[in-house]
Amino acid sequence: MSYAQLDAVVSKAEDIFDHFGVSGTIVFHGSEPLLMKKTLWEVVERHKDTNFGIQTNGILFDEDDAALVKERRISVGISLDAPSEEVNDYLRGKGQFRAVMRALEMLQGYEGLNVITTISKVNYKVLPALVKLLHEKNAQVFLANPVRGTQPGGRELRPDPLEAAHYFLGAVDLCIKLTEQRRRIVLADFANILLGIIAPAARVLTCDISPCGEFLGFDEFQGGDVFKDPPLEILEAESFKLVRSRIVERIEGCRECVFRNVCGAPCPAEVYAEHGIMFKKPYSCDFYKRIIERAFRIIADGKLEHVVRLSKLKKKYEFVWGGRGALQCPTELRFNFRSV
After folding, report:
1. Which of 33, 214, 256, 275 counts the most CB atoms within 10 A of its CB?
2. For the packed helices 161-181 and 285-300, what is the interaxial angle rounded to 10 degrees?
3. What residues contact 284, with CB distance under 8 A and at least 6 apart?
4. What percentage of the chain's residues is helix, strand, coil (to nearest 5)?
């Protein structure tokens, strides 16, 4: 994009925020946004009152970039798939591991830093070791999302859902242990599952792959031309309405599930790519079931504070549950919630 094109898109996004009365965040995403960093930072400088984020592989990230994101409080997501150079660079490309290590040093302790991992059959067993590495680098938050099978290559890389859940929960357990013993680290996907249980209105997305690019390969899901069409008309495009129509009550096998209002049944693009329709259970169904079961156990065991910052939540939301030992199964959860 040229400066004029990017500036126009950012301005339209701001118009959407204003229309709905929300404080939104504009995220610069891949392929690799820092390939055009001069244009990027010029646009950020012009829109001083807007929140920005950037998702990068870290290769072009330097000290000047680090200083700028800290000054403007820009959120930074850095891709890292393994705690070893060999495995990570096999998945991400030669040199990416060392680049990320440099970026983590530059951003050490920065609250706006997130590390994002794609779980595949190549790396799912090293998730706990990745937690250890990130904790040593003083990273506080990371996301670990199962690879989506929207494309044939993605389907070839998908791990067994229950096997992946086992190592994912091993990473969760290690995060809790390290948080109890030393310094906080959170696996954000799991924290968001907990939010979906205790304070649903505090949860922003039901899928943690952000932003979503999974529909980009389907012509039938084009919603309009962002340079020509009014943003609100784009939001009401038939293709977008179809995506929003995928509600849990319309999915066989999900509508009866006790976890139906927690998991989000991701990913609609993956389901559509495999089945040609929206209303099928996701490949990762058992993965999310196992994780949600553990989330209820965390609540029952009184360890919620080690995953979710309740002190911050209570400033915006009021919620009450039965307390330690009161919860025996998901259907017995008791809480009252109201926005304050």
Report:
1. 214
2. 30
3. 146, 161, 164, 266, 267
4. 50, 10, 40
pTM over 0.85: yes
Domain boundaries, the chain: 3-202
Mapped onto helix, strand or coil, the DSSP state of residue 126 is helix
Sheet containing 141-146, strands listed edge to edge, beginning at the edge strand earlier in sequence? 25-28, 51-56, 75-79, 113-119, 141-146, 186-187
Sort residue 74 into left (φ over 0), alpha (ψ -120 to 50) or beta: beta
> Cα–Cα distance between 269 and 7 in angstroms, integer?
29
Q: What is the DSSP letter of 53?
A: E
Would you write out the chain's pLDDT as a tens digit for each of its 340 residues?
999 999 999 999 999 999 999 989 999 998 899 999 999 999 999 999 999 999 999 999 999 999 999 999 999 999 999 999 999 999 999 999 999 999 999 999 899 999 999 999 999 999 999 999 999 999 999 999 999 999 999 999 999 999 999 999 999 999 999 999 989 999 999 999 998 888 887 776 667 775 678 888 899 998 899 999 998 898 899 998 998 898 889 998 999 999 988 888 888 999 999 999 989 999 999 999 999 999 999 999 888 888 987 766 665 555 544 444 333 333 334 444 333 3
